[in-house]
Amino acid sequence: xxxxxxxxxxxxxxxxxxxxxxxxxxxxxxxxxxxxxxxxxxxxxxxxxxxxxxxxxxxxxxxxxxxxxxxxxxxxxxxxxxx
Length: 83
Prior knowledge:
Layout (H helix, E strand, L loop, with lengths): L10 E3 L5 E3 L6 H12 L6 E7 L6 E9 L2 H12 L2
Antiparallel strand pairs: 1-2, 3-4
Helix pairs in contact: 1-2
C-alpha cells in the first residue's frame, strides 16, 4: 500500500535543514503549471502536485509521495505544451 500525506505544509526543509516557507502562488493555474514543469525534470523522484494552503490561503507545490514514472513525465510535457 502506498503511503500519501493527509496534511500539506506551508514549509519545506531548506538546504541547511531549517524550515523555510514554500513559494506561494496566487492561482491554482500558476501552481499547476509549476508542478507540471517540475514533473518533466529527470531529477524529480516523486510526483509534484498543487494544493491550497490552509495557513496562507495561497497555492503551493509539493510531493504527493508517489514515485514519478516516465509516463507521468510525458503526460506533464503534453499538458504544458497544451497551454
